[in-house]
Specification:
The chain is an alpha+beta fold and about 850 residues long. It has 14 helices and 46 strands. Helix 3 runs parallel beside helix 14 and helix 4 runs antiparallel to helix 5. About 55% of the residues are buried. The structure holds beta-D-glucopyranose. The site of beta-D-glucopyranose has 9 residues, from helix 3.
């Protein structure tokens, strides 16, 4: 038998998080683990001698909600889980989490906005920056002297805008684009950093650079002046908590008062700091970051550098006192997910001199991030410009037409000496960069940025083009999970469109552990829900985008929580009130249950290359799906009356759907692929009409190839194979003519394109849009065969059903919330070999291509059959 071993311990879906919510009850943390070895029979969780779950005889448990006494703020808790196997052996693993702030003594400060210097473009005429009113990035510094050696230090920090914080020149943490994007009117995130090692005796300096970011910079496609969406200039809030060896503590905070708390270190946690002195010690100045904007780009003028300002001893007497802004602001909450980080670097595949002082760099990969370049000594005032693009034009120059108003241009103005230039407060979507102004650039590197979601999936097979497709899907996910799930990283859009996220989510969950990332974003979605219950089209909400969501977009407010619950088993994803408010909203405005009214900007089956799916059919299918899933969510939370009411509603919508759009032959109004896909996937048809509808879908696919837009594409291969047409699903994967996935691969795609054929008007032709990459779910689930039974949660019951098509081998692995799942199959000499790994506590139904079915427990299993099909 052997023992069971817990690993991958996490608190609220993150390993050892610093600065968690200080919560009990609904916000009490979930302490969870993955499993290896034997099946568990029981578990026990203990938190720091404070709380014990008691032995729970639950063989399915992979997590327990903390239910002990209230947690204190700013406190590290160690915890452990002990698991028992059936043979009585046990095994224990330990981890920790640390709570964040409960209240702030600091307040918001800024460089005096009245003295803000609006920056002209470095050279008139050549950059479209003149009217943008971009301003030099404020630098804020605060010198302080700890009164004795510091044994622990934590920095709690946030900005309206973006910040980069240093203590004595050492970077605090490694978060990029922090504090991340939220609707800053509703909620602002802060980060917590362990900065103990940055502190020294004597004078110390906390130094922060601020930039506009999403708060006061350009965001989305609205060309209006900053200030339109959220704010007008960046602001800072920070508290540095110092704990001394003698057990006392001190707080260096932003704000009007210098705050010092005394008492045992533990009690730093337990009350507001005692204010013993007043006077704002923060000084504000401007330095070499002349402007920084997410869409426009960033300019460093090294002639204006204030060398040493981040170090002790700098004379800041010419700087101005920072001002306390005192604006009302939204609650500060600890960020619940891993931040954006610089996760990897790519060297160019080529650097080509294209003219005097001009080089074209090809990184061989479309990505989101920025370029770092070593710049040799130049004349003071000489400019180096980096422009970015996804593609080249026919003449081999950067093609920036699809960036719209996103200039994506970074500028360095040299002070003379050699330097390394890398912007810090912007990012671009690009494969190519053009560097001008330097005859001999030094090392050039692409720095890849994205929300640091732990990678969980691998897929490879005998067809290199499908492998490339999988890589493209992965890169699409990396490039678009940047604080929020965006539609694209390059043009002046980069918005958290709900449908894009909804269709891609199942694929995203296989590639990476996105539980914490989506927990954050679902707060954005709920923050954007209208008082009437309407979910939005984009989250975080910003000005200029229709508030009420379209069918399939707004419904993501229900579909995404449901899928996350099924994958991660955390019922907190299911906010029944919010989900039910949405369903009730649609029902209220559509009493006959055909969703015609309040469809927002109804985007229909967006970017479908085929005949239009009737809008009311499409909308009503999603209305049913939302009602159906909300009924299930209500039942899971024990809300029986709501569950019954919503179940009846879902049944009634289905009846109305059938009556209005379906006929006994299984034909649907409009006769479109997406119509059939939605009806089949959402269980909208009477059982006897299902087979004819599936046959009609297959006919349409055979005749035309894929004709779905965003709202059907994720269902195409899964539904065809569910109805016995995996041959057709493979035929779609093998198709090379547009529309097809392989067409993109054969035309050099390194990410997924916005349009099937990559041939739209430049303004709507992104080469990094992940929606059509939602076929990734079928690569894992169909080709390799890793799936979850329909009623299973958290991969308790697996369905392993490889669908080999013409391939000779495939392998996939998935680090599920329960533990490792792996499938590897190959064909050899007329035999089919299959190896399967089932995690502890799970069972699997294994379907072999010859029609045999096996029920297997956890562990490693191998199967060998002949290729002949008995089915
Ligand atoms: C975005 C899409 C989005 C759509 C709404 C586009 O501009 O790029 O991905 O879902 O608008 O139809």
């Amino acid at each position: 038998m052997g023992s069971v071993r817990p690993y991958g311990l996490s608190c609220d879906h993150r390993a050892t998080p610093l600065g968690t919510e200080v919560g009990t009850g609904a916000s009490a943390p979930l302490l969870s683990w993955r499993l290896s070895g034997a099946d568990p029979v029981a578990c026990l969780v203990e938190v720091d001698g404070l709380w014990s779950s008691g032995r729970l005889d639950d063989p399915a448990a992979i997590g327990v909600r903390y239910a002990g006494p209230p947690l204190r703020p700013r406190t590290r808790y160690t915890w452990q889980v002990t698991l028992w196997a059936g043979d009585g052996t046990s095994s224990t693993a330990r981890s920790w989490f640390e709570t964040g702030q409960d209240a702030w003594t600091g307040s918001w400060i800024a460089a005096d906005p009245d003295t803000v210097e609006h920056v002209d473009p470095p050279t008139e005429g050549d950059l479209a920056l003149r009217d943008h009113g971009l301003s030099a990035c404020p630098q804020l510094r605060r010198a302080f002297e700890p009164r004795s050696p510091v044994v622990a230090a934590r920095l709690y920090i946030s900005a309206k805008g973006l910040y980069e914080a240093r203590i004595n020149g050492h970077r605090a943490g490694d978060a990029e684009l922090a504090p991340g994007w939220t609707d800053y009117r509703r909620r602002i995130q802060y980060q917590t950093y362990d900065v103990t090692s940055c502190l020294t005796e004597g004078e110390n300096v906390l130094a922060v650079t601020l930039a506009d970011g999403w708060w006061s910079g350009f965001a989305g496609f609205d060309p209006r002046r900053p200030g339109y969406h959220y704010g007008t200039f960046p602001e800072l809030i920070a508290e540095l908590h110092l704990t001394y060896a003698d057990g006392t503590a001190e707080v260096v905070a932003t704000g009007p008062a210098e705050s010092v708390a005394t008492g045992p270190a533990e009690s730093v946690a337990s009350g507001p700091a005692e204010v013993v002195a007043s006077g704002n010690g923060w000084r504000a100045g401007r330095g070499h970051v002349r402007y920084a904007d997410l869409l426009k780009g960033e300019c460093h003028d090294l002639r204006a550098a204030t060398t040493g300002w981040q170090l002790p001893g700098f004379d800041d007497s010419s700087w101005s006192p920072a001002v306390v802004t005192g604006h009302d602001h939204a609650p500060l909450v600890p960020s619940p997910d891993e931040p954006v980080r610089a996760v990897r670097e790519l060297a160019p595949v080529s650097v080509t001199r294209t003219g005097p002082g001009t080089h074209l760099v090809d990184f061989g990969q479309n990505l989101a991030g920025r370029v770092r370049v070593a710049v040799p000594a130049l004349e003071p005032g000489a400019r180096v410009t980096i422009r970015h693009a996804e593609t080249l034009d026919a003449a081999g120059r950067l093609d920036t037409a699809n960036l719209r108003t996103a200039d994506a241009t970074d500028v360095l103005i040299s002070a003379g000496p050699a330097t390394v230039f890398e912007p810090g407060f912007t990012y671009h979507g690009f494969r190519y960069a053009e560097i001008t102004g330097v005859e001999h650039p030094g090392e050039v590197t692409a720095v890849v940025l994205h929300s640091d979601t732990p990678w969980t999936g691998t897929f490879e097979c005998s067809d290199p083009e499908l492998d490339r497709l999988q890589r493209n899907i992965e890169w699409g996910q990396r490039g678009n999970f940047v604080s929020v799930p965006t539609d694209c990283p390059q043009r002046d859009e980069r918005l958290g469109w709900l449908a894009d996220a909804q269709v891609f989510l199942p694929t995203a969950c296989l590639n990476a552990d996105v539980a914490a990332f989506f927990a954050k974003w679902l707060r954005d979605v709920r923050d954007a829900q209208t008082p009437q219950g309407g979910f939005p089209n984009v989250a975080p909400r910003l000005s200029g985008v229709a508030e009420e969501g379209a069918p399939g977009w707004a419904d993501a407010g229900v579909l995404i929580p449901w899928h996350l619950y099924r994958v991660y088993g955390d019922a907190r994803f299911l906010d029944v009130d919010s989900m039910a408010a949405w369903v009730d909203f649609v029902q209220r405005h559509n009493p006959d249950l055909i969703w015609r009214a309040r469809t927002g900007p109804h985007y229909a089956d967006w970017l479908s290359p085929g005949p239009a799916t009737p809008r009311e059919l499409l909308a009503t299918a999603f209305f049913h799906r939302s009602a159906d899933l909300t009924a299930r969510a209500a039942r899971i939370h024990g809300r029986t009356a709501d569950a019954e009411r919503l179940r009846t509603l879902a049944d009634d919508i289905r009846t109305a759907f059938i009556k209005t759009f379906a006929s006994a032959s299984g034909r649907l109004t409009g006769d479109t692929q997406t119509g059939y896909l939605l009806a089949l996937a959402f269980g909208l048809l009477p059982p006897e009409w299902t087979a004819p509808a599936a046959r009609r879908l297959a006919e349409l696919v055979e005749e035309h190839g894929p004709q779905t837009g965003f709202l059907g594409v994720n269902l195409l291969c899964p539904i065809l194979s569910e109805h016995g047409r995996d041959d057709l699903a493979h035929a779609l994967l093998n198709r090379t003519a547009p529309p097809s996935w392989r067409y993109q691969v054969r035309h050099g795609a390194t990410t997924i394109w916005e349009r099937w054929d990559g041939a739209g008007a430049p303004s709507m032709n992104s080469f990094n849009h992940y929606a059509f990459g939602s076929v990734g779910e079928w690569l894992y689930g169909g080709v390799a065969g890793i799936g979850q039974a329909p009623d299973s949660v958290a991969y308790r019951e697996l369905v392993i059903r490889p669908l080999p098509g013409e391939l000779t081998w495939a392998r996939a692995s998935y680090e599920s919330v329960r533990g490792r799942i792996a499938v590897a199959w190959e064909r050899a000499g007329g035999d089919f070999h299959l190896a399967v790994t089932v995690p502890p506590g799970a069972t699997a139904t294994v379907h072999l291509p010859d029609g045999q079915t096996h029920q297997v427990p956890s562990g490693d299993h191998t199967f060998r059959t002949t290729e002949e099909t008995t089915a």
